[in-house]
Structures are given as C-alpha cells and as structure tokens.
Amino acid sequence: LILHSSPLPLYCCKTVRKMKCRINPGNNENCFVPISEIIAVEETEFNKKQRNIGRWQKMAKLHAFTVHYVKKARNHRWRCSAATFWCVDEHLCNQWTQALKELLEMQKSRPKQLLVYINPFGGKRQGKRIYEQKVAPLFSLASISTDVVVTEHANHAKDNLFEVNIYKYDGVVCVGGDGMFSEVMHGLIGRMQKDSGIDQNNPKASLVQCNIRIGIIPAGSTDCICYSTVGISDPVTSALHIIVGDCQPLDVSSVHHNDTFLKYSVSLLGYGFYGDILKDSEKKRWMGPMRYDYSGFKTFLSHHYYEGTIAYQPAKHTHGSPRDKVSCRTGCYICKQSEKQLAEQNKEHGLKKEEGEEEWKVIKGKFLAINAVNMSCACPRSPKGLSPAAHLADGSADLILVRKCSRFDFLRYLVRHTNQDDQFDFPFVDVYRVKCFQFTSKLSEDNESNVMDVGKKRFGQFCRDHPACCCNIVNSTWNCDGETLDSSAIEVRVHCQLMKLFARGIEEDCKDEAGHSQSSIEQLL
Ligand SMILES: CCCCCCCCCCCCC/C=C/[C@@H](O)[C@H](COP(=O)(O)O)NC(C)=O
Ligand SMILES: Nc1ncnc2c1ncn2[C@@H]1O[C@H](COP(=O)(O)OP(=O)(O)O)[C@@H](O)[C@H]1O
Ligand SMILES: [Ca+2]
C-alpha cells in the first residue's frame, strides 16, 4: 500500500470480513492506492486470530488500523477492498491513522451530506433493498450523512426538491432507473431556475448551471444514463464514484412546444420506434424490465413509420463527428475544447444573435425512428449505444434519422447496436451533430394551427406541394429519457454542461471491452 516509507515496519494483511469484498487469497503483493481512492481509514481492534505471522505471536499487544480502498475490477466495476496494518508501537499507529485521516479531509470534492431518493417500484422493485444492503453501509463507512426519502408516488422526488433546503446538501442521489433520474434532474434544474428567476418556458433562456451533483444508483430497467457515464450499471461501483467525489459535467437538452416548457433530456429523445416501445411498455409495467423486450418485438413487427419535418442547426463549435471512431472517455479533450469554444462564441455574439444568423438545415421524410441523443446511450442491451461517438459534455446532440426501409433492413440496423459494425453505414440512416432542432409531424403541420411561427415559415415551403401520402395517420410519441411527451411538435436546444454527475465518464483502460464474438444471427445478417 502507501506505507512503504514507514520508519518502523508496518505489516499488512488484507481483510475481507467487514465489507464482504472478494479478494484473491494469498495475494500479498504490494499495491499502490492514491489517496483519492481511499474510502475510509479506521482504527482496528486487533483480533488474535489475525496473528498469523509466527514471530508476532509472542508480542503482548499489537495496534492496527484498516484502510478501505477502491479496487478496480474488470469492465469498469469497482469494489471496496481493505488492508489492515499493524505494529507494536501505539504512537506510530496513531500517527499513521491521523495522517491518513487528514489527507482524506483535504479531498474537498467529496460529499459529506447527501439527499437520497429511492423509487421502490423501479426495475425489478429492488431499489430499497439495493440501497439498504449495498449502498448505505458504504456511505456510513465513508462518514457520509444522508437524508433518505422513499418515494410514495411519481413526482414525489421532483416536488420535494422544490420544498427542501437543497443548498445544505453536497449532492442528490437517486436510486432507480432513467425515469427516476429524470425526475430528480427536473427537480434540481427547475429549482435552480426558479431561485434565479429564470423562466423555463422561454426556449431561448440562458439557463443557470446546477452545481449540486446527482449520483445514480442503478435500480431501474434500462439504466442507460448510469451505464453511459460510468461504464457499467452496478450499485456498488456507483456508490464508490459518489464517495470519492467524482464530477462529470453533462449536456442537457430543453424541450419546448409553442413557448411552453415540456421536459429536459440527457440521454434519448426518441420519436417513432423508441417512442412507440415506451408507450406500449408503460401498460406492461408489471412485467418489469422484460416489458421492453415484449414491446420491442411488438413495435418491430408493427413497422410503423411517421412523416414529418426536421430543421436543425449543425454543431459547428465542436471538432467531433458522430462517425468518429474514438469515443468520449474520462477527461475528454473534445468536451473541454467544445465548452471553451461555446463560451467564447457566446461572449462575442450573444446567444440570440448567433442562433438567428446561422442557417437551418431542413429535412422532410418518412421515418421509422428519429433519435436525438446527448450521450452514447450505451446500456446492457447495447454496450456501444445508439451513437457510440456521442459526447457527454460537448454541447451537442447526435440526431439520428432512420428513414422508411424494409423490416429486414431495420432489423440489420438494430442488430448493429449490439455488435462492432457501424450502425450509421446504411443508405436509410443519416446522422448529424446538432446544437438545436425542431420537429413537426405531417399531421400537426396539416391540422394544428399552433405550430411554432418560425417552424411554420421554414417548413411551409416544403409542404405546400406535397401530395397526400400513405403513411400513418396517427402521430408517434416522444420518448424523453424514458418518459412520454404529450406533444409531437417540439423544439429542442442543447445546454452545454448544465448539470453534473458523481461520475468520471468511461475510463480508457478497460481490461476487456473488446472480445465480442459474432453470433450466428449476426453472421447471417
Ligand atoms: C435484434 C434486437 C436488437 C436490439 C437492439 C437494441 C438496442 C437497444 C438500445 C436501447 C437504447 C435505450 C436508450 C435508453 C432509454 C431509456 O431512457 C428508457 C427508459 O429507461 P428506464 O426504464 O427508466 O430505466 N428505456 C427505453 C427502452 O426506452
Ligand atoms: N413511489 C412511486 N410510485 C410510482 N411511481 C414512481 C414512484 N417513484 C417514482 N416513480 C416514477 O416511476 C417512473 C419509473 O421509474 P424508474 O426508476 O425509471 O424505473 P424503470 O427503469 O423501471 O422505468 C418514474 O417516472 C418515476 O417518476
Ligand atoms: Ca453531448
């Protein structure tokens, strides 16, 4: 461990009793742990049974302390491991304990007080058990105090965040899925805007950043936000990222309809395929996470497509492209550069002028799916995600348009989310990196009088001569981070790094990311 330079010998034995950590028995080699990855230091009662080194048997009294630290395992998984050090000199032992505790005190980004919301009905309904058994003991070991709210109804957490004194907390933790995260995020961002007198209904408003970090303990059905920002959906790993005080900024998209605020989104805004899956699966909540497989299959067979018009402004401030072969990783350079670039542009031109001057690109067509993603949307079902090269904090979203195609081609597209092949390499799939976009369905263009003025003008010229078409006469629904939106015509804008998570992005060094073998169905396709 870190105690090599001790003037007197300190002996170390790894112990697994307290935290039930798995370690390799007989693995007594040195390991180096940065202070930033120490979870806690505790004085330890020296147990006679631990005296397994012959010459120490005769000693009358031994003094010991235990260092609990993060052990990095495969696939971005973190575990809590422990090492106990002992020696005969009580003073030396105390000095070490004291010195280590002081070093931990100096880690200023670590949270001391957290507000925790648990959705007891998310995913497999294990949220409460997961928190109590896996997370609370770690928080208590790390001397983090918590106020815990087990939610009693939808929107409980969101409403509560408008009432409590949020400023006394170093962070808010949500135990649940993407929907639960979304609720907590709306509470926090909404509260920040309210306290700063900013009108969320103004789509052009410059929103106030939220510096109270959110931690996600995955206990939902998809857990895409956790997976895409940590690299794994694992409650213990997430709890450890919270304890060490990690910080990952995140882009947030605001969604408006007719100057009315609808929702924020951080992962997927999906119309068509993913909207239809969500709408159908909500009726099958009793099935748990399986509902997405059932509804996914049903939606795939129904093969609905929707006609509409999209207008977007390309994200010119960022160097990245959705077709890049490199992905966003811990400390991402592209995210840092893009943030700087955006800040400079805003200082020079002012947001309104700049947006007004830039050209809008307009695309109309029949789509099986329209997906706007602020992050890769990697999840256990799709380890590389809907847009593998999307960035967590570059102030842009990837807009993926899947045009009407055969069922077979759509299946080939879907299967590429699960293997190493490029899902954008199809003639019916287009992808753009954007900073804002608007969508209007054919139906609302024809029937609604309340389409945004600016949109109406822009879309009008394309729709005037359009002949009656044979596509669906109903609209799809927008899937916004796992929640449905009531309106199909929307206006979306990416707010660069509006909030922060207790995470560090996906670490580069992963031990076994590759090694994906092709299944027979993939070979066939
Ligand atoms: C041959 C079959 C191939 C299947 C390919 C599947 C690709 C799956 C990609 C899933 C991307 C999901 C993006 C995340 C969405 C979540 O916000 C949302 C809500 O998640 P929650 O239930 O709150 O955890 N889940 C869904 C399925 O809409
Ligand atoms: N106590 C509760 N009862 C019913 N619904 C709740 C409760 N707490 C939270 N919710 C809502 O449940 C929805 C889904 O929660 P989530 O944790 O994302 O689970 P899942 O991943 O299974 O969808 C969220 O929209 C959230 O607002
Ligand atoms: Ca982004």
UniProtKB/TrEMBL annotation:
It holds the Pfam family DAGK_cat. One of its GO terms (molecular function) is ceramide kinase activity. GO terms for cellular component: membrane. Residues 109-259 form the DAGKc domain. GO terms for biological process: ceramide metabolic process. This is Ceramide kinase. The gene is CERK.
